[in-house]
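Batch manifest, entry 17 of 40.
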Amino acid sequence: MRSLIVAVAQPHVVPLDVAANANSHAAAVRAAKSRVVIFPELSLTGYELDAPLLGEDDRRLAPLIDACAATGTIALAGAPVAGPYIAMLAIDGDGARIVYRKQHPHSSEAPFRPGPGPEVIEVDGWRLGLAICRDTRIGEHAGDTAALGIDAYVGGTVDHQGDEAVLADRARLISTTHGVWVAFASFAGPTGGGFDRTAGRSGIWTPQGSVAARAGRTPGEMARATLVQEPAHSR
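Output type: structure tokens
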């Protein structure tokens, strides 16, 4: 059986302060002891739709890159990037790169553009389909991503306090429909952009729809699980 240790993190976020947020991300990476750590939507800036766009070579990401190098971790973090797009960055010891652009931004997220399509990254033989917040509510997105051949569907979200059950329902539907692991990192506490209170309860679900691990509602918490898959798993 193949395995992959994954964590979903709820970092303390300072709106618009990339340097502070990179440090909190780095602390989460060091604490997670995981191969992949997933962070919420726009985690590096807070959910601030007018935040300056972030480049892959931004020097403020150095503490996070260093933490990933020291631990052998790939961090999947959120940021606004040129386009403009709401994006997911994959950060490791070699630096940061844009791996996904949100395909289904909400109408309230103008002027961010829809991303070009579903994306998958491969980590140690595991194929991870990528999503950001509203994407996870669009059945077509999960279906199109699953059609690329994935072992897990992972994403960063932001939800209002009280919507944690909605997050879990979404995860169970995707996992059982497509027979894949699901991991969602959800903001906890205030994150800017009108989200004074957010849902938290980041979690990881098995391909059968059961909870493998779930965080609470407090900033700084995380959930961690070992994903396992039979070698003969068909793609």
